[in-house]
Fold each of these.
Amino acid sequence: MEGIEAAFRATADPVGARVRVRFEGELDEATTEVAWSVVETAAERDGSDIELDLSQVTFMSSVGLAVLIRCQSLVEEPRRLVLVEPSPIVRRVLTVTDTAQLFEIEPPDAAPPAGDTVAGAA
């Protein structure tokens, strides 16, 4: 378990009317349980929007993407789930999978362009 902890860290802190959840490291099959647990706990805070700070994510597999999509189910209107400053690897996964439109992303210029294509993809 020591190697997993070294490869991934998830924290949650209140920031005004929001809870900021920060993921650091590799978001993949080995770490999604920890990630989900932290987001689930953050979602229990009444009325709070959730910010997912993804600026320090160094790798994200399809299982990691599934966790982000699943996080949407925890946040019901009028609450919001916001992806904050997704790292280049997160933006790439959102682009390749054409899933960026599923999320609110801040700042807006951190979102992959709609219809962006991957070099070499047909």
Amino acid sequence: MKFKREYSKWGNFIKVIDKAKKSCENSNNTIFEHFADIGKTIKLPKNAERTIDDMKLTRYACYLVAQNGDSRKKAIALAQTYFAVQTRKLEITRQEYKNLSEDEKLYTRQNVKDKNKYSEIYYKYVNNLKSWKDMF
């Protein structure tokens, strides 16, 4: 899923990145450890090339971008859902799961299964730094 494609103006998307960076900083994290500014060469017509700004994000930075993005946009909503599901998975311990009724277990399994189809979209991005232009 590509976040950037859902923003009609580049400046609006940069505002989301800037808000995410501010959240990172306000959480006593170092911005450059999570948001790495890099350059990327793109091909133009007639074999020309141009270097454009690009960025690599950690999983944490992706989370902050998702949380600071416009939830009316599908890619942002899916990312928010992914991170919410991943958080919930960690919150439920085995003991808590064992204490659920069979109906609650069935609901939980189906809900996680449904949400996991969204997580597959982001799975390849969460363990390593990836180009944000490739991600968004």
